[in-house]
Amino acid sequence: MSANHPTAVLKFGGEVVADTPRLVRVMSEVKALSDRGWHFVLCHGGNPQANALTERLGLERKQVGGRRITDAETLRVMKQVLAGECNIDVVAAALGQGLRAVGISGVSAHLVTAERRPPKVMSGCGPDPIDFGYVGDIAEIRTDLIDLLWDHGYTPVLNTLGVSSRPDEASGVCEVYNINADTVSSAIAAALRADHLFLITGVPGVLRDKDDPSTRIECLSEREARRAIDEGVIVGGMIPKVEEALKILQQGVKAIHIVGAEAGSIRAEAERPGSCGTVLVHDAR
Fold it and tell me: What pLDDT was estimated at residue 124?
């Protein structure tokens, strides 16, 4: 894309989807940037909604090492939540703010083509391989549908289910897989070689002290980010987010923004990177 039409992927979780005022604020910021020529893909999760539906249905929530086991019943829940409730709620909020939003799935047109994750031994979970069920590992991202929607002025709202490249021999149906939303949004950004990937988190960026928002780090180069991990500045759940971001930078994404969901944060980050979150950028050449 030209400088007049920056491309961006915005990922947010089910917590944002469930908080209508916050969701509307996010959509209004996307609309303001879209009016200036930006092209967005909106990727959403739905973990709180999936957990709530699992409980209402009386199903057992199965996790190993903090990761969801997706058996057939759980996959049905994920389809209902991601492709149903959450996707529709995000599209409705986007429409309300004037975006020409279209709800799509990673299953649509084989956008997120995946393979079923084979059983594997997990650290701290015993010697036996863990079968995660209908969990997918991304094999290919096909961006044709996104390009088509962008060309016609639409904003794709993507749920992060994936699909097998070939049908099951017995049923003739392509298998659907549950895939982590952070993983999908990063892969989409890399395949598009997007100018920006925005990740909305529960904190306003990478913090030197995880309990003190005033210690936010405005900008990290690849080298600085690795050093911050090695020195214990970046800790806990922020480590995999930053490590994933570093991989995506190497695949052509120009900047990755880790931000909170405070009013104005996305627009401010787009206009002045590092002003409201933490921006990860390439090392100086």
Answer: 66
Q: Which residues contact 226 (CB under 8 A, 6 or more apart)?
A: 246
pLDDT band at 214 (very low <50, low <70, confident <90, very high): confident
Q: Tokens 């609309």 sit at which residue?
A: 31
Structural domain boundaries, residue 184: 1-194
User: Quick one: 34 and 121 in the same domain?
Assistant: yes
Please count the residues of the chain: 285
Average pLDDT over residues 142-147: 97
**Is the domain of 98 the same as that of 222?**
no
pTM over 0.90: yes
**Identity of the highest mean pLDDT range in 102-116, 117-131, 200-214, 216-230:** 102-116
Q: What is the mean pLDDT of residues 106-135?
A: 88
Rounded to whole angstroms, how far apart are CA atoms 74 and 134? 9
CB environment 117-134: b (16+ within 10 A), e (fewer): beeeeeeeeeeeebebbb
Of residues 186, 184, 226, the one with CA closest to residue 46:
184
Structure token digits, residue 264: 């104005």
What is the per-residue DSSP string for 129-196?
A: PB--BSBEEEEEE--HHHHHHHHTT-EEEEE-EEEEEEE-TTT--EEEEE--HHHHHHHHHHHHT-SE
Torsion of CA 219, 222, 228, 231, to 10 degrees: -160
- Paired tokens of 16: 């944002």
Q: For residue 229, which of 217, 237, 239, 220 has the smallest C-alpha distance?
A: 239
Residues 170 and 208 in one domain: no
Closest CA to 46 of 242, 148, 178: 178
Burial class (CB in 10 A: 0-12, 13-18, 19+), 109: middle
